């Protein structure tokens, strides 16, 4: 036995208004939309042919957000390489200097490339041995060895110099 499905779900119109809205809500869908497919049971998942476009868009939107997030992360990591092209560099003339304990001096460096308009940033690997300020002025505080770095930009363009500090010689009388 087959169930008879009406051809039009809302066949009782009068002047553009539905005569019995409660009856119209209980009517079966149009026969063309479900031709040959069984009626799903209550609580059963909706078959793919009856999924509304809004449900499909939600999944696509989620995938699009994930793709944009991954692309942004990749571009962010790749952008670090853009800040330090091969023609940008910091050059300190010497590679190693020796000072005596208590001596002071000044280091200079040359910046080449697009970062030439920026100030150098000087750092010491050991402030107990060699103190250096942002002007490149240094003070040899105690015997040992420290690496002084001159950098510019985001820190990827840099050069280093080794500063050896000898102990002060004492005169025995």
Task: Provide a quick synopsis of the model.
The chain is α+β, with helices and mostly antiparallel strands and 173 residues long. Helices cover 20% and strands 29% of the residues.
Please characterize this protein's 3D structure.
The protein is built from 2 helices and 11 strands; from the N terminus they run ββααβββββββββ. The chain starts with 12 loop residues before the first strand and ends in a 7-residue tail after the last strand. The protein is of the alpha+beta class and 173 residues long. It has helices at 21-25, 53-82; strands at 13-14, 17-18, 89-92, 96-100, 104-106, 109-112, 121-124, 130-132, 137-140, 144-152, 157-166. A hairpin with a 2-residue loop joins strand 1 (13-14) and strand 2. The model has no long low-confidence stretch (mean pLDDT 75). Strands 4-11-10-7 form a 4-stranded mixed beta sheet, with no helix packed on it. It has a domain at 89-166: Immunoglobulin-like.
């Amino acid at each position: 036995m087959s169930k008879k499905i009406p051809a039009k779900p809302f066949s009782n119109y009068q002047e553009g208004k539905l005569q019995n809205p409660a009856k119209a809500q209980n009517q079966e869908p149009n026969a063309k939309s479900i031709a040959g497919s069984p009626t799903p049971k209550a609580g059963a998942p909706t078959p793919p042919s009856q999924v509304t476009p809004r449900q499909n868009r939600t999944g696509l939107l989620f995938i699009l957000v994930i793709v944009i997030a991954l692309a942004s992360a990749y571009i962010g990591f790749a952008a670090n390489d853009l800040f330090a092209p091969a023609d940008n560099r910091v050059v300190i003339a010497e590679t190693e200097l020796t000072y005596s304990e208590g001596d002071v001096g000044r280091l200079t460096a040359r910046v080449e490339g697009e970062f030439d308009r920026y100030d150098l940033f000087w750092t010491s690997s050991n402030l107990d041995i060699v103190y250096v300020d942002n002007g490149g002025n240094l003070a040899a505080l105690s015997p040992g060895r420290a690496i002084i770095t001159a950098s510019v930009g985001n820190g990827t363009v840099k050069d280093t110099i080794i500063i050896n500090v000898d102990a002060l010689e004492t005169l025995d009388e």
